[in-house]
Write a structure and sequence with these properties.
Length: 265
Amino acid sequence: MECPEERVLAAFGVLEPAVRLVGGQGETWRSGDVVLRRADAESAWRAEVLSVLPESDAFRVPRPVRAADGEWVAFGWEASELLAGATDVRRQDDVLVAAAAFHEAVAGLPRPDFIDTRRDPWCDGDRVAWREQKIDGTPPYVELVGPLVDAWRPVDLRAQVVHGDLPGNVMFADGLPPAIIDWPVYWRPTSWAAAVAVADALCWYGAEPGLAARWAHLPEWGQMLIRALIYRMTTDDLAGGAANWTTERRAAYAPVIELALSYSG
C-alpha cells in the first residue's frame, strides 16, 4: 500500500515522514504521535463516537484527529492518536474484560446506516451466520460447517454496536488500561463479539478450552459460538474459496466446532 502523501500529512498537521507500522495488515502508518490509515465507510461515524467517549479506568481508545478543515477524513485518509502498548494474544481473558467495559460504554448508540450497505467477505459472512443471507459455499466449507448449521437455532438477544475482531486488536501497556483499536463495527449481541474472540483464540492463538468455559455464563453461549464459527468459516470461504481449506485450516477449526456443539445443548 502506498505511503500517505505529503498533502495528507499536512492536512492532519504532522511533519515527520510516515513509517509503516507492524500489524494493521500493512495499511497503517505513523507520523510522529499520529497514526494514519485509509478511511472507509465507517470512519466518520467511528471518529464521532470515539471523540466523545468518556474516559474509563477499564479501557482506552485511540482518539481521532481532525484534519485542518475540521473533517475526520482528508484525501481518503483518517488519523488518530498513537497509543502506548502492544498486542498480546495470550491475554484473551483480559481482552474480554476490556471489551465488556467498552461494549457497556457504547451500548446506547443507535444502529449505524452503513451496517446495511457494506459488502465484503466479513460482513457477508456475518449475515450468513445469522441467516440473513445465503451463499453457495465450496464443498469443503459445506462439509465442515454442516454440523454447526444443523445445531443453529433462533435466539432472543439485544443487539448493539460491538467490536467484531478483538483478539489481536487490544494493546497492553504497564500501568495503563488495555487499549481497544481497529474497531470493525457490527450490530450484534455482546456475547457474540465475545464468542468470536474466544473462537479465534482457540483456533489460531493457542488458547485452551478452559477459555470458553470461563465465559460460558454469557447469554446463549453455545449459539453464539456456533454463529462465531459460521461467520469465520464463511468469510474464509468467500475470501479464498476451496483453495483456502488446507488440511491445517480444517484441523484448526475441527476441535473448536466440537467444543461449540458441546455448549449448544
